[in-house]
Amino acid sequence: MRKPIACMAIAGLMLVMPLPALAHGENLQLIWETSGFKNPESVVYDSKREVLYVSNVNGGPDEKNGSGSISVVSLEGEIHILDWVTGLNAPKGLAIVGDNLYVADIDTLVVIDIPRRTIMDRYTVDDAEFLNDVAAAGDGTVYVSDMVLNRIHRLRHGLFEVWLESKELENPNGLLVQGERLVVGAWGVMTDGFETETPGHLKAVSLADKSVSSIGPGEPVGNLDGVEADLDGDFYVTDWMAGKLLHIAPDGSVDELLSLNQGSADLEYIQEMDLILIPMMNDNTLLAYRAHASEDE
Length: 297
Hints:
Elements: E1 7-10, E2 13-16, E3 29-35, E4 40-46, E5 51-56, E6 68-73, E7 79-88, E8 94-97, E9 100-105, E10 108-113, E11 118-124, E12 131-136, E13 142-146, E14 151-156, E15 159-165, E16 172-178, E17 181-186, E18 188-190, E19 196-199, E20 202-206, E21 212-214, E22 224-229, E23 235-239, E24 244-248, E25 254-259, E26 268-270, E27 275-280, E28 285-290
Antiparallel strand pairs: 1-2, 2-3, 3-28, 4-5, 5-6, 6-7, 8-9, 9-10, 10-11, 12-13, 13-14, 14-15, 16-17, 17-20, 18-19, 20-21, 22-23, 23-24, 24-25, 26-27, 27-28
C-alpha cells in the first residue's frame, strides 16, 4: 500500500517523501521529481563532477531544428543550467568517456568537451536515419544504435563506422556494454512509424564475433528504451510506449517495477547510490527513485 505523499515545489523541483512501490522484492522510493525540461530523452551521471546531464529533444524526435540542448542537473534534482550546450538536433542517448560527453543527434555523433562546454567534434553518417542510444566500453570505444536502420555504429581510434547491421537487432534502441557483450534493448520490428505488432526484448551481441542472441526465451517484452545493469547483474529497463520501468533477469523473466506515463526514456542507474533516474520525455520531467529502500525510510 502506498504511503501518503508530502510534496514541496521549489523552482521547478518537487521533493517527494516516501512513495514505495513493492516489486521484485524491493521498494522503490521516489526521491525527487524535477520539471522544466524540453522533451528529455536521456540522462547520464558524470562521477568526476558529480552532476547529471540530460538531453532535451525539444521537438520531434527526427526534427533537425537546431533547438535541442543539454542540461546540467544536480544529484538533488536542481537544474543548474537548462541550456548548457545548445544548437543540437533532437539529441538523445548520452555517454561519457573521460572529459568528453558523446551525444546521439539524429545522423551525427556529437562530442562535447565538458570542461570547455564546447562541441569539439562531429561524426556524421550520410545515410543515418535515427541515431538513438550511446554506450561506452571501458577502453573508450563508443557504440551508437540506429534504431530505424537496424545498425550499431562504433567509434574507435577516431574511426566512426557501421559495426553491425542486422535485422536480428529488431530496431535497436538502448545499449549497454557488459563485459564481452553489448546488451541491446530492442524496440521491436516497426510497422507504421513507431508502432509494432510484436514488441521487442533484450538481446546480446558478442563483441568478439558480432553474433546476436536473445536474453531469455526471446518472448515479447515491450518497446524497450534504456537499459542499465543493477547491483545483482540483472537489468533495469524502460518501456517507452507503455510507460513502465521493468526488471529483467538474465533468464529473461520480467517484473514490472513502476507504471508511469508514456515516454519513460533512456534511464541512468548510479550503483553506488542505488539511484534510478528516468527522463519522462512527454512530461518534461526527470524522476529519481531510490532502489532497495526500506519501508522505514
